[in-house]
Task: inverse folding
């Protein structure tokens, strides 16, 4: 008992945002995220310091998943962004950078946090109302009857992550494949509650990206099948292949001593009894004209041999991840017991064949109606493949979100600068009743609005990593990137050809201002107009649902952190 230490009292940290350690950590995190943002973002190598896997990435899901922090404030921020990414897959860096910007700009104001929170919520509502209105100049409608906008959306996602190491030909090839895979997952016969299918990614590392392809149905790696040999499979009278899907182990060791005791008569072999039961299942499957048996777990060699001799293809070790798509594609109900076998659990396939990719044999399951497909994804290195896999999964999820809400937002920083221009104009024309309702002065409102706009503009500024100038036009509120090292000219239009999103060219007589002017100098901004001429072939687009959610999450998280008065840490 003498060695027991007395419990330490909890540590109380008041006004955590005023602490140097918190400020420095927040500034460091913001710098890491900003330098990773966009197609020209700098890559980060993450490892745990004691060996193991090294992750090279610029994606928020990988960055925040590998970073560890002892600061409670940063843990709140990263957890909030990770939750957003888990729901939308996209705009993680946007959300995190914007949140850091809100915290940095708001905490420097000589305004009470409670007042800042009220005003910022009002500003957020102005943004959301504008984004959801038909008059919004940074919103693009997505027509699923044409692939142009969808191509722009997918290409924007693929080119945003430099660790994928893709050239233009590879980007175009993968854009086509991702869209083709997505179209495969759309049900042919739409019912009241239509459910999209799924694209399964098959890894092939060490091959060219252009060797990637998409096939309808599922590919299951099967080393026991030899490529080139004909595949004899039993078919039903309607020329389909009846399937059975087992989620229970068929290895013959079903009895687990930890589950209790079992009484066995003298001279009876438990193993032989189990095997006989498995063989009885096999006989029933043969009798029911099943042509393909798939098992999530291990199948006994004797059962596999028996099924093979009777023209039944047997596949075991399918794994949990394939059970749901297998069941949906074939219509099979997973069979959870070898002691009860109902014909109602069977499904069917249109065809079955062997394919070979990168010298690996695969069993190709071809369904009647394609809602499940396989993307054979190739890349030259393991690091680049890991990044590419995450990007393709993000693109698929973004397309699914776009089906629910067929809209997109302009990328390349133009939505952020457009919103900032809109808020600057809107905040200068509000009636006095607004300030009365918010219980604040017009000066306080303008201070918070300016911090809000600077935070949005800082996200657009983060897309530039070469110290070039960034401009905002005074007509549409879009941002324009001047190449680094450009000579001084009298007309900016001589140096810029298109805005960040690619919608506006320099053909008009536009006037510009520098992004993020000197602190304290008010920016006079008219209401941004909707572009009259739209360039639709090479637009940079962002997911509407993900960006709208990211904007809300960033502000709500920043307000939560600004409102922190104490952090209480247990020292034991």
Result:
């Amino acid at each position: 008992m003498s060695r027991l230490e007395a419990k330490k009292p909890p540590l109380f940290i008041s006004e955590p945002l005023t602490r140097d350690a918190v400020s420095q950590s927040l500034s460091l995190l913001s710098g890491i995220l900003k330098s990773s943002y966009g197609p020209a973002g700098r890559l980060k190598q993450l490892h745990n310091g004691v060996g193991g896997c090294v992750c090279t990435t610029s994606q928020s899901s990988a960055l925040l998943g590998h970073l560890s922090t002892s600061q409670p404030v940063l843990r709140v921020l990263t957890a909030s962004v990770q939750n957003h990414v888990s729901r939308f897959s996209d705009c993680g860096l946007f959300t995190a950078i914007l949140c850091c910007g809100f915290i940095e700009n708001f905490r420097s104001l000589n305004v009470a946090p409670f007042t800042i929170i009220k005003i910022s919520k009002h500003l957020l509502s102005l943004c959301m109302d504008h984004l959801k209105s038909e008059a919004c100049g940074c919103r693009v409608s997505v027509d699923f009857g044409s692939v142009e906008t969808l191509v722009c959306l997918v290409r924007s996602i693929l080119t945003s992550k430099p660790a994928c190491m893709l050239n233009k030909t590879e980007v175009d090839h993968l854009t086509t494949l991702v869209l083709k895979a997505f179209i495969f997952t759309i049900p042919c016969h739409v019912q009241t509650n239509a459910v999209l299918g799924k694209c399964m990614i098959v890894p092939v590392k060490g091959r060219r990206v252009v060797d990637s392809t998409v096939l309808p149905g599922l590919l299951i790696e099967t080393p026991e099948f030899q490529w080139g040999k004909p595949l004899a499979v039993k078919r039903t009278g309607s020329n389909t292949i009846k399937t059975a899907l087992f989620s229970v182990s068929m290895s013959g060791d079903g009895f687990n001593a930890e589950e209790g005791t079992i009484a066995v008569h003298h001279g009876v072999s438990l193993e032989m009894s189990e095997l006989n039961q498995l063989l009885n299942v096999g006989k029933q499957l043969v009798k029911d004209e099943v042509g393909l048996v798939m098992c999530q777990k291990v199948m006994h060699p004797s059962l596999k041999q028996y099924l093979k001799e009777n023209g039944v293809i047997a596949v075991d070790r399918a794994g949990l991840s394939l059970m749901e798509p297998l069941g949906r594609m074939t219509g099979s109900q997973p069979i959870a017991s070898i002691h009860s076998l109902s014909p109602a659990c069977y499904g069917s396939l249109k065809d079955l064949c062997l394919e070979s990719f990168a010298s690996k044999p695969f069993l190709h399951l071809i369904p009647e109606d394609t809602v499940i497909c396989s993307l054979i994804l190739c890349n030259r290195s393991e690091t680049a493949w890991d990044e590419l896999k995450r990007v393709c999964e993000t693109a698929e999820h973004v397309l699914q979100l776009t089906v629910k809400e067929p809209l997109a937002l302009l990328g390349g920083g133009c939505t952020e600068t457009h919103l900032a221009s809109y808020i600057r104009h809107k905040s200068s024309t509000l009636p006095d009743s607004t300030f009365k309702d918010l219980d604040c002065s017009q000066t306080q409102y303008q201070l918070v609005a300016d911090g809000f706009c600077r935070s949005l503009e800082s996200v657009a500024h983060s897309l530039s990593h070469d110290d070039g100038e960034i401009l905002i036009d005074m007509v549409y509120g879009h941002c324009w990137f001047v190449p680094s090292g450009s000579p001084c000219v009298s007309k900016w239009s001589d140096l810029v050809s298109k805005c960040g999103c690619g919608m506006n060219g320099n053909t008009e007589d536009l006037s510009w201002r520098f992004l993020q002017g000197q602190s304290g100098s008010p920016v006079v901004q008219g209401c941004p107009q909707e572009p009259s001429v739209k360039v639709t072939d090479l637009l940079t687009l962002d997911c509407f649902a993900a960006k709208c959610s990211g904007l809300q999450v960033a502000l709500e998280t920043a307000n939560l952190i600004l409102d922190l008065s104490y952090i209480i840490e247990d020292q034991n």
